Amino acid sequence: MTWTISGNYVAGCSCAVICGCAVDAKPRDAQGGEECLGVGVFHIAEGRLDDTDLSGVDFALYNQFPSNLTSGNWKVGIVVDSGASDDQAQAVDTIVSGRAGGPFGQLSQFFGEYLGMERADVALSDGDKPRLSVGGRSNIEFTALRGPDGNPTTVKNALFGFAPEFTLGTAKGTSEAFGLTFDSSYGEIGDFTFSTEQAEGAPTGR
Question: CB within 8 A of 127, min separation 6: which ones?
Answer without folding.
Answer: none
